[in-house]
Design brief:
Blueprint lengths: L9 H16 L8 E5 L14 H4 L1 E11 L17 E13 L11 H29 L5 E8 L6 E13 L3 H4 L5
Parallel strand pairs: 1-2
Antiparallel strand pairs: 2-3, 3-5, 4-5
């Protein structure tokens, strides 16, 4: 992913996290088929007649929110658009997999659920390693705060886990750095 010139704050952080997530998910016993960026207030798992995003595996990075923060990770109480010196970026890392299913006459066994849990924990470990990879390899000087990792409800035949991370980023928007009149 190349960093667009019109965003020097969010896109570079997301690109670096995505690179780390791709490497770390590749170390899991069953790497997901898709590792990508998602947008919106949640990640909806897509399904078509021939493709089930959850069952082939999906890992993602998603921007949750962004706020001015000179005293990271606390939000600034007041800030005007061009007085922001640092941003706090709250990002979500997540992984979705197929849940165990039965058939018309059976339900998943305890062994099926244990196997799913082992995969789930391996995914969670990959999310933790992703944050360490980002911090060490890309920006050891940036402040990083890890929040809770939360297993999501088993829904629509999918299991998933998400982890939020808050990362400080310099305010680099060129429009506020330009002198009046260009």
């Amino acid at each position: 992913m190349t960093t667009p010139l019109y965003d020097l704050v969010v896109a570079p952080v997301v690109a670096d996290l995505l690179a780390c997530l791709t490497v770390e998910m590749g170390k899991t016993p069953q790497p997901p088929a898709s590792v990508c960026v998602r947008i919106g207030n949640r990640v909806d798992l897509l399904l078509s007649e021939i493709y089930d995003e959850c069952c082939v595996g999906l890992a993602w990075v998603r921007l949750v929110r962004q706020y001015p923060s000179r005293s990271f990770p606390d939000p600034d109480e007041t800030a005007s658009p061009c007085s922001v010196s640092r941003w706090a970026l709250v990002l979500e890392l997540g992984v979705a997999r197929c849940a165990p299913t039965g058939d018309a006459g059976t339900i998943p066994t305890c062994e099926d659920w244990t196997a799913a849990a082992v995969t789930h924990y391996a995914d969670l470990a990959a999310l933790r390693r992703t944050v360490c990879c980002y911090e060490k390899a890309h920006h050891p000087d940036r402040k990083v705060v890890i929040s809770d990792a939360v297993p999501q409800t088993v829904e629509g035949g999918c299991t998933s886990v998400t982890m939020q991370v808050t990362i400080s980023a310099l305010a680099c928007d060129p429009v506020c750095r330009e002198s009046p009149g260009g």
